[in-house]
Amino acid sequence: MNNHELKKKANEIRKGVITAVYNAQSGHPGGSLSATDILTYLYFEEMNIDPADPKKPDRDRFVLSKGHGAPGLYSALANRGYFPIKELETLRKLGSRLQGHPDMKGTPGVDMSTGSLGQGISAAAGMALSAKLSKEEYRIYALLGDGELQEGEVWEAFMFSGHHKLDNLVVIIDSNGLQIDGNVEDICSPCPIDQKLKAFKFHVILADAHDFDSLRQAFEEARMVKGMPTAIIADSVKGKNVSFMENKSSWHGKAPNEEEYRIAMEELERMGEELCQK
């Protein structure tokens, strides 16, 4: 896909996030919207996957370590064809395949169940080592939040990954600067993230999470790295492209009411129309 097509697809995924969280009246829109462009690039450009065969052995694997960003992942999966987009309206409902956090046993396209912060990246590191030991060529991508870096288990996984030279592992940090209680740096700063990751034997790339040229360059560079894992620190905006959600920690885990839903969807519809006219 070219950048214009990726932008249109990302807009549809954002509409899916808002629709899912509104219908559930529960969920996490802010971090899902900040990660949308990253997810769009991964699922529509970067990863070797096949929605018609979600478990194909040589597929690339994706782990949403920040599992509360499930609405973003689900919307990406639905738009990629893993299940009907209409199913997004069942988020967090009894009997739904789309629970509040990813479930690899119940949701097509989910490679690892996550939710407890820090555990996803640990699983991803194990998956990467497994591929190395089996001499498999698939790659593992793991998405973390910057607030998640406050978990000690994350750094154990980073130390493990660097030590084992897991160059088939790409860690993406959705660095939106906010967590449920406020600014990440005010609560327990993990900064400087880039220098710490370099000390843990990672190749570090800085990127703009909302610029597809920047994302493309970052992921292409990651493919060239040998002998060490890669970390892409992607500078992002929480609540991206919904005006009243942008840069507001209050939208970390809150559903829009009817009026807020209407405004958000109108903004995204307008953005979609503008993209179609270009």
From TrEMBL:
- Name the keywords, alphabetized: Metal-binding, Thiamine pyrophosphate, Transferase
Q: Does the keyword Transcription regulation apply?
A: no
The record's annotation in Pfam families points to: Transketolase_N (PF00456)
Reported cofactor(s): thiamine diphosphate
CDD domains for this protein: TPP_TK (cd02012)
From the UniProt record, which GO molecular function terms apply? metal ion binding; transferase activity
- Source organism superkingdom: Bacteria
Q: What family does the entry list?
A: Belongs to the transketolase family.
Q: What is this protein called?
A: Transketolase
